Amino acid sequence: MKTSDYFYDLPKELIAQTPIKKRDESRLLVMDRRTGQTQHKHFYDVIDYLNEGDCLVLNDSRVLPARIYGIKKETGAKVEFLLLTQKSQNVWECLAGPGKKAKENTQFSFGENVMTGTVKEVLDNGNRLVEFDYDGSFFEALDRLGEMPLPPYITEKLEDKERYQTVYNREPGSAAAPTAGLHFTDELLEKISQKGVKLGYVTLHVGLGTFRPVKVDDVTKHKMHSEHYEIPQKTADLINETKKAGGRVICVGTTSCRTLEAAASTYGEIKACSGSTDIFIYPPYEFKIMDGLITNFHLPESTLIMLVSAFGGYDNIMSAYKEAVSQRYRFFSFGDAMAIL
């Protein structure tokens, strides 16, 4: 398949710029992956499609307010840094702009010396390794200084930073939100749990590569970015018990999906583990663990629409997306959701 096969026409006004007032009142397009048949619901109706004995797998990564602005100590020039990956306790790989003002050994002050940083190395890809110096907790300092690294298609300012976090976030480290989970409320998760659906948590720290466009015509030639993941013992046990009992494993988001499928591809089973994955899922792909997927609507020609096409069927997904456009669904990070079951 070619990358262009995953293009669809999306009016700009359907790209959601802000979250709706109540998380679970977003719309939900439910699709039967065998028939392609669709239903139009609200997200709080998702409980009706979950059965006792199913296991819902959620990504508990917390988004870092990873965009910070440094003042160059020598000249007073302002440089934007975007934290990408923690390399050691105090060293992060960052994007820096304008790059010419962030040369090796340049020192910066952040928030009137709440934190300082020194560019230790300029990497081959143009990113910088920056060593930070601070008192107390790095993440507390970052919460004071940083802005949410919203995707480039969101141009409006986010009033409440917590709306770009899931209600169950625990582990700081993502550069972007696992957006399928943004629709859940504590109350809805409690109702789902009371129905007899098990909740399992994994961690995958979402990288900015999730927004990287596919620039090759041949899908198979695209190189995926690598992301850190962890599966705790408790979650591994829940998933294996669910499978053994004949229940379904339903992933919330493509990040949860890639975590489970990466582990199964590496180890031949789900077990407690951690590592990095650059798994790229596109048709045809035989899913080893996932039986259902709750996800948002993804960008045209992106790796994520390729993943959902591998699971839901290419023709089914492209037809469902066309229907979502005609029904005026809201798209992307703050948009509506889709359940593929």
Describe the model:
The chain is of the alpha/beta class and 341 residues long. It has two domains: 3-63 and 161-340, 3-Layer(aba) Sandwich (QueA-like), CATH 3.40.1780.10; 67-145, Thrombin, subunit H, CATH 2.40.10.240. 20% of the residues lie in helices and 27% in strands. The chain has six helices and 17 strands. It has helices at residues 138-145, 186-194, 233-245, 254-267, 303-312, 314-326; strands spanning 27-31, 38-42, 55-59, 61-63, 67-72, 78-86, 91-97, 107-110, 115-122, 128-134, 171-174, 198-204, 227-231, 249-252, 273-277, 292-296, 337-340. Helix 5 packs across helix 6. The radius of gyration is 20 Å and the shape is globular. The mean pLDDT is 95.
Order of helices and strands: EEEEEEEEEEHEHEEHEHEEHHE
CATH class wording of the largest domain: Alpha Beta
Gap between N and C termini: 24 Å
| Uncertain parts | none
Strand order of the largest sheet: 2-1-17-16-14-3-12-13-15
Please describe the biggest sheet, giving its number of strands, its sense, and whether it closes into a barrel.
9 strands, mixed
How many domains?
Answer: 2
Number of strands: 17
Write a concise synopsis of the structure shown.
With about 350 residues, this protein is of the alpha/beta class. The chain contains six helices and 17 strands.
Structural descriptors:
341 residues, alpha/beta, QueA-like, Thrombin, subunit H, 9-stranded mixed sheet, 6-stranded antiparallel beta barrel, 6 helices, globular
Task: Explain the layout of strands and helices.
Layout: E1 27-31, E2 38-42, E3 55-59, E4 61-63, E5 67-72, E6 78-86, E7 91-97, E8 107-110, E9 115-122, E10 128-134, H1 138-145, E11 171-174, H2 186-194, E12 198-204, E13 227-231, H3 233-245, E14 249-252, H4 254-267, E15 273-277, E16 292-296, H5 303-312, H6 314-326, E17 337-340
Parallel strand pairs: 1-17, 3-12, 3-14, 4-11, 14-16
Antiparallel strand pairs: 1-2, 5-6, 5-8, 6-7, 7-10, 8-9, 9-10, 12-13, 13-15, 16-17
Helix pairs in contact: 5-6
